[in-house]
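Hi R.,

Here's the input for the 2-deoxy-2-amino glucitol-6-phosphate complex you asked about:
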Amino acid sequence: MCGIVGYVGNSSGRVNAGHNALDVVLEGLRRLEYRGYDSAGVAVVADGRISSRKKSGKLSNLLDELEGSPLPDSLTGIGHTRWATHGGPTDRNAHPHLADDGRLAVIHNGIIENFAELKQQLLAKGVVFASETDTEVAAALLGDIFRNQLKGNTADGGLAKAMQLACQRLQGAFTLLAVHADQPDVVVAARRNSPLVVGLGEGENFLGSDVSGFIDYTRKAIELGQDQIVTITAGSVEITDFFGAPAVGKEYTVDWDPASAEKGGFSSFMEKEIHDQPDAVAQTLLGRSDLNGRLTLDELRIDPQLLKKVDKIIVLACGTAAYAGLVAKYAIENWCRIPTEVELAHEFRYRDPIVDSNTLVVSISQSGETMDTLMAVRYAREQGAITVSICNTNGSTIPRESDAVLYTHAGPEIAVASTKAFLAQITAAYLLGLYLAQLRGNIFSGQIKDVLADLGKIPAKIQKILDSATELRELARSMKDEKSVLFLGRHVGFPVALEGALKLKEIAYLHAEGFAAGELKHGPIALIDEGQPVFVVVPSPRGRESLHSKVVSNIQEIRARGARTMVIAEEGDEAVRNYAEHVFYVPETPPLLMPLLTTVPLQIFACELAAAKGYDVDQPRNLAKSVTVE
Ligand code: AGP
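And here is the predicted structure with 2-deoxy-2-amino glucitol-6-phosphate in place:
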């Protein structure tokens, strides 16, 4: 989730007070560091030209570079912190990218889905590319339009006109910012599916991927809408659509303090990341299927013939990531008919597992640095397995040591307790399962298209759950002094129960345990005492009727013994009402996709209860975000 900053000031703006564009931009990038990144860069317009510097690694590397090779003072500048998607985190791939003989600089957040096709067209025109990024293709397209189609004419909108024409040809999600040496007092930006806000100053104006980028200078903001272009100068803000028609953004005043602005106004990163989940799922799906509903996982780069011979899948992970694997198991076995085992990585390599060249080992890791998982992947590779990493951190160790990687695009997950990465991991694992099924012909293309369509509806369904959580939050706060909470689930609801228990354990320090509902009578029901809180994740009544009725019976059994029953059920499921003290409904969705919805109330419950206890939900005691020791 890249950080973006743009600035234009004039003599009555900050520049007079000794600030120049570079200072404003660097301060904005510093405020946006929380978004996570692996390279940073800036560009300013001064003395009739563009001057830029960019470095991989942290902002400090860029500052060192600027120390040794300073930029001229300027009134106009842009800056970027990159979270690598296309192309690794290198100096070359860092933004800004230049075009039009270095007279144009562009920064970008998002994914240009048709960059390959555009790159071919530009290569045919003789354009030479310096990086592997989709951003450089967008910059080259913009430069080609400005120079060759508009003949560099700045009278009729110039860069803004070129941006309109370029955006008409771009597909995917993008926020683009551009500056041109021929128009030194202008920054032009465009947004589709990726955030961008304008900051309104006195004799100066700002752009940011969120208000953190300029909150030190102004709290008056305009949120841009979909498919809009904004041109800022020191004294003006002009918004149009992609075809030049006037448009308007949503003006508002930021009431967050700078510190909370980094959390998007939420009280914690965990709360923010729970609310990031619609976007995390959408971004993980983006660009991975074509208009005919076929998977296009080009990034996997494994010989399809090898994948067709796979006769066993082993998923390796730890903690929440392992529960994502457990969810995926149900879907992958259903779609691909390949035996799929889910192993805790730290157990796997010490049990002399049966692995060979027809075994596909899928590791799941948010950080890509979990030592237990890394060592298990190394062991699997030594045994000849094909290894694929599902990972949220570009360029981290586990993907580097795997044959292929399928990145989740959840954006950096700051809170120790994993939430958005979990849903993104499940989404990526579904995509991998569908890809294997498509490759091996296990299911018809029509079915794959239907599943992808259902997945495409998940972000809005998650948002609906997030928007209707008031009663759940009140319940969580009322239970802050509970000593134990149990979680029951069946089928894909079982790993959700395990994950709900883990969330409560790790941030509220509460005894919590997840069980397969069918296991209840084999022992755990002895734990049920008067007033024992139990969450029950109920399968869809539209799924296997026997599963639903069995779990409803489980609810009756524990209620008869005094349990407080909190039920997560599908909208329309009235059968559960009679036995539940509280019912929290999630929108209807195909049974295999339900974990993407039923997990969310359990995340909210744990976060709210821990906050009610006054705990630091982002940095819980004894835990690290990435366990890099065995
Ligand atoms: C989940 O909330 C925990 N932070 C922990 O279980 C985590 O999922 C596990 O350590 C694996 O981390 P990884 O995804 O970075 O490999």
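One thing worth noting: The pocket of 2-deoxy-2-amino glucitol-6-phosphate is lined by residues 318-321, 365-367, 370, 373, 416-418, 506, 626-627 (CB under 6 Å).

Cheers,
M.
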